[in-house]
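[agent] plan:
  1. take the single chain provided in the ticket
  2. run structure prediction with default settings
  3. attach structure tokens to the ticket
  4. add a short note for the reviewer (M.T.)
[agent] executing step 1
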Amino acid sequence: MGGSDSARPRRVLVLGATGTIGRATVRALVSRGHEVVCVVRRPAGIAGTRERIVDLTDPLSLARDGVRGESFDVLMSCLASRTGLPEDAWAIDYGAHVTALHAGQAAGVTHVVLLSAICLQKPVLAFQHAKLAFEQALIASGLDYTIVRPTAFFKSLSGQIDRVRRGKPFLIFGDGTLTACKPISDDDLGRYLAECLDHAERRNRVLPIGGPGEAITPKAQGEQLFALLGREPRFTHVPVRLLDVIVAILTMIGRWIPALAAKAELARIGRYYATESMLVLDPATGRYDAQATPSAGSETLFDYYAHVIRGEAVAERGDHAVF
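[agent] step 2 finished; step 3 output follows
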């Protein structure tokens, strides 16, 4: 894990504390003795913390209602736009984060820990460019930073559990081996983020991180899901070309109908995740490298599937789930 850098209680201002990863991160921070203040849009009952209702898009609200003239050591953000659409992405993934960065600097923050995304290695979508713009602003701020780019989340790979339970086939793009990822659980990621406060070797770095085990393809996800249910695997193969056609049609019509322009962007997001692996990208070869993708934690995606099937966990789908 590396050496500890002054493992002492810190005062931490947390953004995005109400999401599944945010809650896991807050639990990890509280368990380590940190004093946690969460800025939220509405009361959420986050145990062990102080909650402050704030409009993160309003600098005055953040300063007056969130920071309140107090001092903080660390700014921790698990905040992300809900849809990934351009207006939302630039308002939240960039704008709200810049506002929080400035507020943090005024409050004496010396270290910022940012939950980002590994897909920024190959940015083509609006939300990726917005996230990347803030990463660059953070790096240029002069503060110590830790940018964590996880490979994939369990919740975004769990949208087909109910579908398969109902006897339907598992949907895959192409032959189901176009992509791979090393998904990480909320709790494992939350602990990793909290540990970043105490490890000097994680300062001023962009850190890709995945969960334990080998990289997993969509086909392998489906095969294991059927095995856990005691059924023979059944797949429906969706050609990537179909996504290309949908994107083209929605983009064309979206020039006149704004609602369809938004759907075109969502289709582009879906196509991206259907064709790009969530692993470390080798810039020299342009290929994704599972071996170069670090691992952390102990829970695997298939452990999680088993918990959901046994009723021990609830599959919470993310806004960016493909299915």
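[agent] step 4 note for reviewer: The longest strand covers residues 144-150.
[agent] ticket updated
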